[in-house]
Amino acid sequence: MPKLDFDVITLGHGSGGTLTNKLLDSGVFDVLSNDILNERHDGAFLEMNGKMAFSTDSFLVSPIFFPGGNIGELAVNGTVNDLAMCGATPKYLSLSFIIEEGLKMTEFWEILVAIKNACEKADVKVVTGDTKVVEKGKGDKVFINTSGIGNIHPKAHISEKNIKIGDKIIVSGNIATHGMAIMSVREGLEFDSTIESDTINLNHTISRLIDGFGSAIHLLTDPTRGGVATVLKEIALSSNIGIDIFQKDLPIDSQVASACELLGLDPLYVANEGLFLSFVDASIANSFVETLQKDENGTNAKIIGTVVEAHPKQVILESAIGGKRMVSMLPGEQLPRIC
């Protein structure tokens, strides 16, 4: 970390003057340097061809540092993954900070380094952005907004309209891990080993799957806030389909399951960050899972459900002992400030 004049962020760092320029020169532009960002213009000049996807998201997780990551890489991975769910190859990001006065420079630097590393893993560039500082007590250390753009994969045809009766629903890995990593820190829970967030970029994994299975992949979505249950219920409602899922097939780490039980939380409603759901044609479901399980981001992938003609607009969970219940959306805020 370079030597800066202050140990913490001050209101002067958001003034647009000398301190702002020092912060950007020694921080953002230095760490995230690339040919487009280095133009330092009010916007970015980009070269794009064909059909594109665009997405934006804001991140206000608390705490900003958590087992397995921090708010910086979460912000990059979140927008990268949103683009990947569209069948796009993420290419460029914008990055905006709202920083609370008093944030330690060492913490800001650590966040920047995490952003740089996450961008390199996802093969994306930060090309424009903004930094603002608010008075102490009017923020919570730092909030981040990222927007991203990318080209749609030529073999991708991702849409809820493509879902059909008989489609298999596949989850790429263990559910509820990110949410419980955050909650374990907040609640001071101790386990044999630390529960770590699953935040990771999924774009390379998705690209390989689209390469192999193309339009047989009908829908991709990441179950972040609201968890798997809420996402499936939203899809059932908007697509007028029925969904059956099976508790025995839901992959979950034993420590995560224990933490959920201890806190009285249903893992189906807990947020995820390195996870995605796929609706795929039944004819390729087994091959899709086998391929995904060979990928580092899909080793625990499983088929968890089926699209059915019965009970349209409803998601039905069959329990491990054979009972059935309707699954609804998350009615309120189960885990605030989770992403």
From TrEMBL:
Gene3D superfamilies: PurM-like C-terminal domain (3.90.650.10), PurM-like, N-terminal domain (3.30.1330.10). It comes from the Bacteria. Residues 42-151 form the PurM-like N-terminal domain. Residues 164-315 form the PurM-like C-terminal domain. It holds the Pfam family AIRS. InterPro entries: HypE (IPR011854), PurM-like_C_dom (IPR010918), PurM-like_C_sf (IPR036676), PurM-like_N (IPR016188), PurM-like_N_sf (IPR036921). Transmembrane segments: none annotated. Belongs to the HypE family. This is Hydrogenase expression/formation protein HypE. It comes from Flagellimonas profundi.
